[in-house]
Amino acid sequence: MNARSLKLHLSDRAKRGQMMYHAVPGLYLILNGVSNLFGGHVEHLWVDLLGIAAGLALLFVLKRELMHKGHSHGKVAWFEVIAGVVVMIEGFHKLHRDEWFQPGTVQMLAGLLFVAVGLFHERLLAFRTLRCTDEGFAMRIRPIYRISGKWSDVKSFALDEDKLVVTRTDGSTTRSSLRSIENRADVLAMLNAELARSVKGV
Q1: Per-residue model confidence as pLDDT tens digits over 101-147
Q2: CB neighbour class for 68 (10 Å; exposed up to 12, middle 13-18, buried from 19)
Q3: What is the pTM of this model?
Q4: Nearest CA to 147 among 124, 161, 122, 168?
Q5: Which of 71, 119, 138, 159 could form a disulfide with 148 if both were Cys (CB 3.0 to 4.6 A apart)?
Q6: Phi and psi at residue 54, in whole multiples of 5°?
Q7: Tens digits of per-residue pLDDT, 23-32?
Q8: Which is nearest to 47 in space by CA: 61, 33, 63?
Q9: What is the rounded CA–CA span in Å between residue 30 and residue 198?
Q10: CA-to-CA distance for 169 and 146, rounded, in angstroms?
C-alpha cells in the first residue's frame, strides 16, 4: 500500500497563537519567583532568582520570534527544557516529609511536562500531515482533530473560504475548518488529484 503525504503548514496567525504557549512556563517562573520573594516564602533564594532569570530569558526569546514571525526552535526547544528543569528544582525544594499533601510534587510534574514538550518539540509539530493511500485519506490538523475518508465514499472536494467541503456519494456534505492551515490550496489539489487517480484505478 503506497502512501503519499503532504506536510501542512500553519498560517502566521496560527503560529503566533501556538507560540504564545511557550510563554506559559516563562510567566509561571516569573510569577512564582516574585510571589515567593515578596510573600515572605523564601526558602532558597537562589532557586527563586534562577526561576525569574529563566522566565525573563524565555519571554525575551519569545518576543524575538514573534517579531521575526517565525519559529527559531530546532529539533529541541531548549528554553522549554531549561524552564522545566528549573520548575522541577523549585518543586523539589518545596517537598516536606511531614506533610501529606505535596504541592512540590505537582510542580515537579508540571516541570516534567515542560521538559517533555521541549524535547519532543519537532515530533509534536510533525503530526500535521495529509496522508493519502490507495484506499483513502487522513489529515490530522491537531492532535485530537482528524479528517479522514475512503475514496469510494467521496464524490468531490472543494474549498469554501477556509473550510474543506467534502461531498459524498450519498449526497451528504461535511465541512471541516482549515483556518489554521496556510497551504489549503495544496491540500485541495492533492485531494482532487488522488480522488481522480482512484477513479481511474491507477
Answers
A1: 677 788 888 889 888 887 876 666 667 889 999 999 999 887 777 88
A2: exposed
A3: 0.61
A4: 168
A5: 138
A6: -65, -40
A7: 777 788 888 7
A8: 33
A9: 56
A10: 21
